[in-house]
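Narrative of accomplishments. A recurring question from our advisory board has been how the design workflow behaves on a single, concrete structure rather than in aggregate. To address it, we present the structure tokens for one chain from the evaluation set, followed by the sequence designed for it. No filtering or post-editing was applied between the two.
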């Protein structure tokens, strides 16, 4: 079942808007860790599909994916500042992609973690919202450092 690209893109935009508004991201977690899927588009150098950790902008959307191999998972909340500072930067380091607002067929937007940070920063700035970070002085400091990494 191939998802319409525009639908996937719109769900990603909805993810960005909503998580910047609520400052909460939802993931599915069990006793061994968080729900992962595999990219339909990206591969590691060895030909294996890139691993994706899935995130949702609302609890209901996340709950709708608790089925099949994920039927034992529970919804877990992640605060936006923690998501940006720890999750996105960690996924970038580990070569993992973020999946946003996947549906119950595990189709959704596959976002490079640093690009996702820049999308979130852009939305936060557009809405005039400020969040506090532990590892960065400001949202501008974070943006500058992410852009420097992307330029290298």
């Amino acid at each position: 079942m191939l998802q319409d690209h525009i639908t996937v893109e719109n769900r990603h935009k909805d993810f960005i808007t909503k998580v910047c508004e609520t400052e909460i991201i939802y993931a599915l977690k069990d006793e061994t860790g968080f729900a992962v899927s595999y990219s339909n588009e990206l591969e590691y150098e060895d030909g294996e599909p890139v691993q994706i950790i899935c995130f949702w902008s609302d609890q209901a959307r996340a709950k709708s994916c608790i089925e099949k191999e994920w039927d034992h998972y529970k919804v877990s909340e992640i605060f936006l500042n923690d998501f940006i500072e720890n999750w996105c930067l960690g996924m970038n380091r580990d070569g993992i992609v973020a999946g946003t607002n996947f549906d119950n067929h595990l189709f959704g937007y596959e976002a490079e973690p640093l690009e996702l940070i820049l999308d979130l920063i852009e939305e936060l700035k557009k809405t005039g919202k400020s969040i506090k970070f532990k590892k960065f002085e400001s949202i501008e400091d974070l943006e500058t450092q992410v852009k420097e990494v992307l330029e290298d």
